[in-house]
Amino acid sequence: xxxxxxxxxxxxxxxxxxxxxxxxxxxxxxxxxxxxxxxxxxxxxxxxxxxxxxxxxxxxxxxxxxxxxxxxxxxxxxxxxxxxxxxxxxxxxxxxxxxxxxxxxxxxxxxxxxxxxxxxxxxxxxxxxxxxxxxxxxxxxxxxx
Length: 145
What we know:
Blueprint: E1 2-15, E2 18-23, E3 26-32, H1 39-50, E4 55-56, E5 62-64, H2 66-69, E6 72-77, H3 99-114, E7 119-122, E8 129-144
Parallel strand pairs: 3-6, 6-7
Antiparallel strand pairs: 1-2, 1-3, 1-8, 4-5
């Protein structure tokens, strides 16, 4: 499982010109699932994400987590995080998990984040989504388990 985490001032995702998820200050998370990923890995990454201290404190140090600032999450599934570009110019996506399993783990991950008393907004799995954000920093972190 791979996460691309962007600290944002705001972010939203649209499907068919309708906003389906929108947050203010927090994280936009692009989430990719590969074969063999487990709920235990998801649990580990949820804990790391929800406690990631990259928001500035009163001393201008990155020392605060989502809970500390009342931050929100916008979590968007993105199978292209597992693109393999080693051969040719067209990426292979065979490293991405099958859609049924990836969707199950994606929803599990989102539910576990919400169980941490954090507002969670989502994209629509498998849809053609338009994601917009105002990156804060910029701060972008990649996590993998």
